[in-house]
TrEMBL record:
Keyword terms: Acyltransferase, Transferase
GO molecular function, one term: acyltransferase activity
Residue ranges occupied by any N-acetyltransferase domain in the UniProt entry: 6-168
Annotated EC: 2.3.1.-
Signal peptide: none
Protein name in UniProt: GNAT family N-acetyltransferase
Organism of provenance: Mucilaginibacter angelicae
Pfam families in the record: Acetyltransf_1, CN_hydrolase
Chain ranges of the CN hydrolase domain: 221-476
InterPro entries for this protein: Acyl_CoA_acyltransferase (IPR016181), C-N_Hydrolase (IPR003010), C-N_Hydrolase_sf (IPR036526), GNAT_dom (IPR000182), UPF0012_CS (IPR001110)
Protein family (similarity comment): Belongs to the carbon-nitrogen hydrolase superfamily. NIT1/NIT2 family.
Length: 508
């Protein structure tokens, strides 16, 4: 074969006769099933960028045709006839969100030269350029006819996926980062080799940015951690003066978030040493509302989102351990600790909450789990199911063993949920507060473990048992790439056909 030149360009009307010859050769098993000149002319007129051809020695030998659709109008249960408007292409919508592939083929004589891969790459580049969510298409499964009496379409697709069966169309699509959304029935009834079935395939554009009137979320987010020294305070004003010092210091670095440790305000319990521990903690809870009001002001005045560790809170006569998110726009959220430790229950009578949810911020979606909660992987998996990008974990541990439980579990959560995890704890001791002994911490920001991230999975960490701040930048766009192209894909590869998580009776 004499290959003097290979060129990829947009299809032109005058290419039709050569295009027709290649189409007829490519679709010999589907008699007369090729585009007429009027259809090609119409496609070029309404969407010239979407019609791509490849030439060898100036002869058209392959082509990829596409339109843009508003996908929610069709959903996953559609036919080829419906998505193309019965080949009128009235379904094309330049304001749509999905690049829909309506045809791609290579002349049989020129297969094996990886020309189809070039067409697929060109489509991907176009999808990114036009800021479309994804490429979707109905794919043939031409070798299914050989297995129709032995396998269901789903079984056939699974065997192709695991390379037990080769399908010239589906095998190629899977190798080009497409995944199967579902099996379509009667998508293209005249496709006898596929027996009317088709795979609804999709390639996700990880660079897609949703167009919104709101301010776009940042890609690189700066996190500040406060490793808080336990010390005596004579009143709430002294404690909040110390807290504001750290907010001021972290905000000087233009941080987007600041994380305080769990129960950082327990030095105020010193005035209640004459009471038993449970009563003293309930007295401490009376300080929570004034502290909330102060933190809310600090978040706005210093222009930083504050995760204010945790504090005791009484609700309907029951005592809870509660964390608070103060957004810099003045809004506030609260998170109840789900699993009080045995000591928290026996000493203070703490109860657990019953809600796990992700919060939207101006710097992405975040979750908060308080200390012991991070040791329960189901909770962070629920948050990951809500598209969490950063998990904040305020903690309070007394020994290195206790700290390592939090650390190791937090690192595991970062890997298995493909997210960042920030932990911050208290250091030092409170000899003058009953039931509050020593504290051990090494605050840190953990990352997933893959290319593009630190080899040890640690973005930044504090010096152990020393009061200080930690500043770390995390790139949220790296998470998008990890989800789609990671060496392993923990979220995608879950065997939900075998196991699931349910929360409050609902499947996650």
């Amino acid at each position: 074969m004499d290959l003097q030149s290979i060129e990829m360009r947009n299809l032109e009307v005058q290419d039709y006769q050569e295009l027709k010859k290649s189409m007829k050769s490519a679709y010999m098993d589907m008699d007369e099933d090729y585009w007429d000149a009027n259809s090609i002319r119409k496609l070029i007129k309404i969407f010239p960028e979407g019609q791509i051809c490849i030439t060898v020695n100036d002869m058209v030998v392959g082509c990829a045709l596409a339109i843009i659709v508003d996908y929610q109008k069709f959903g996953d249960n559609h036919t080829y006839k419906q998505i193309t408007g019965d080949s009128t292409f009235k379904t094309h919508n330049e304001k749509g969100d999905v690049l829909y592939g309506i045809d791609v083929f290579i002349h049989p004589k020129y297969r094996g030269l990886r020309l189809a891969r070039r067409l697929y790459d060109a489509r991907k580049a176009l999808c990114e350029k036009l800021n479309l969510k994804s490429i979707i298409a109905g794919g043939r499964i031409p070798n299914y006819q050989k297995f129709q009496n032995e396998l269901t379409p789903r079984q056939y697709i699974d065997k192709v996926k695991y390379k037990e069966i080769y399908d010239p169309t589906l095998s190629f699509q899977l190798s080009n980062d497409f995944h199967v959304r579902k099996v379509l029935k009667n998508y293209l009834p005249e496709d006898s080799r596929s027996k009317g079935f088709a795979t609804l395939i999709e390639w996700n554009n990880v660079y897609y940015e949703e167009v919104s009137d709101a301010i776009n979320h940042k890609t690189v987010v700066r996190i500040g951690l406060v490793q808080w020294q336990m010390r005596s305070y004579s009143n709430i004003s002294e404690l909040m003066k110390h807290a504001e010092y750290f907010v001021d210091a972290v905000s000087d670095y233009q941080a987007d978030f600041i994380l305080f440790p769990e129960l950082f305000n327990t030095p105020l319990m010193a005035d209640y040493n004459h009471m038993d521990s449970a009563k003293a903690m309930r007295e401490l809870a009376k300080y929570t509302q004034p502290i909330i009001e102060e933190f809310s002001k600090l978040a706005v005045s210093y222009n930083v989102n504050i995760v204010a560790g945790s504090m005791p809170y009484i609700f309907e006569e029951s005592l809870y351990n509660v964390s608070y998110l103060f957004r810099r726009n003045g809004s506030m959220e609260e998170v109840y600790k789900i699993h009080p430790t045995p000591a928290e229950i026996s000493s203070w009578g703490m109860r657990g909450g019953d809600e796990v949810k992700v919060f939207d911020t101006d710097c992405g979606k975040i979750g908060i789990l308080i200390c012991y909660d991070v040791e329960f992987p189901e909770l962070s998996r629920i948050l990951a199911g809500q598209d969490m990008q950063i998990l904040f974990v305020p903690f309070l541990t007394d020994t290195q063993n206790g700290y390592n439980r939090v650390k190791f579990c937090a690192q595991a959560r970062a890997v298995e949920n493909e997210c960042y995890v920030a932990i911050a704890g208290c250091v030092g001791n409170l000899p003058n507060v009953n039931n509050m002994g020593i504290s051990y911490a090494q605050s840190a920001v953990f990352t997933p473990s893959d290319f593009g991230f630190p080899t040890n999975g640690i973005q930044s960490e504090a010096t152990p048992n020393t009061e200080m701040i930690v500043i770390a930048d995390v790139d949220l766009s790296l998470l998008d790439e990890l989800h789609e192209y990671g060496s392993v894909q923990n979220i995608k590869d879950r065997r939900t056909d075998l196991y699931n998580i349910t929360f409050n009776g609902k499947r996650v």
